[in-house]
Amino acid sequence: MKKKNEKEGILLESGTNEIEIMKFRVLGEFYGINVAKVKEIMMTEKIKPMPHSHPSVEGFFKPRQQLITVINLANYLTGATPEQGARDLFIITHFNKMMVAFRVDSIEGISRISWQSIQKPDRTLANGAESVATGIAQCDNQLVTILDFEKIVAEISPETSIQIEEIEQMGERDITTAPVVIAEDSVLLQKMIGTSLQKAGFKDVKIFNNGQECWDYLSSLRNDPDLYKKANILITDIEMPIMDGHRLTKLVKEDMRLKRIPVVIFSSLINDQMRIKGKELGADEQLTKPEIGHLVEVLDVLIKRFLESEHAGFRNEE
């Protein structure tokens, strides 16, 4: 894939609040995907149909001895199944520990922009939780709709998303009033994570739509004598409009008061490179979606450690 060096470069930078968007076309419209999700671009290959599958699933193919499911984006986005073009391409993605191919008409290049330039669609236009657009970006004089690929895959294959049953399998848990702060832009995941944590006994959960809203809240508590009674842990996604999770982590961990609060990065993008970046920024833990049961176990450990350090008399540490 072209731009490999640039892709590696942005992954190694810390807290720049920037993203590289790969632009592509489907039925003449411009769409975008975070380059960090893209494994490679391939010419289309012969596909073996998958009986009784979702209408948008074309089937699967097996490059280099690995089965990859192919999703027809045109069908998913419009319900239509246009004639396949000779120059169609597969965008091979890797997130949530899965590889999935998406059929597109063409690749239109890569743009590097700030998350501040990405706006969340108006809910009246985007149909609230049903929206498949994670943001709208201006890239090289083109308005590009950045698609929520996790939501697309979760809708087609619900078992690949957060499973509340993982919490139920933990059995009876104690109620905790430890305040949990969350930054997550997906309305669907806000609901699923919130419900899961409620079932796990967490009764004080505040969810913000992006890193900026979350940072504004935490900043407002910076000089509050009850700061550590209002925020015991922060969970953040990486991909979010206005301010991403890496930038949020960097700001929290560089602040003399806020840095004591444990930060858990909970994202579909966690891989070896992202772990290095998150560690550089000071994240206490980094977990891959959709492992909600593992997230709860990590919260238990980090909150217990945080509260023990408070009781040990380090509250005024600078």
TrEMBL record:
InterPro entries in alphabetical order: Chemotax_regulator_CheV, CheW-like_dom_sf, CheW-lke_dom, CheY-like_superfamily, Sig_transdc_resp-reg_receiver
UniProt-recorded name of the protein: Stage 0 sporulation protein A homolog
Organism lineage: Bacteria, Bacillati, Bacillota, Clostridia, Lachnospirales
GO biological process, one term: chemotaxis
Top-level lineage group: Bacteria
4-aspartylphosphate: residues carrying this PTM: D237
Database matches in Pfam families: CheW, Response_reg
Domain Response regulatory: 179-304
Boundaries of every CheW-like domain copy: 18-158
Function: May play the central regulatory role in sporulation. It may be an element of the effector pathway responsible for the activation of sporulation genes in response to nutritional stress. Spo0A may act in concert with spo0H (a sigma factor) to control the expression of some genes that are critical to the sporulation process.
Keyword field: Phosphoprotein
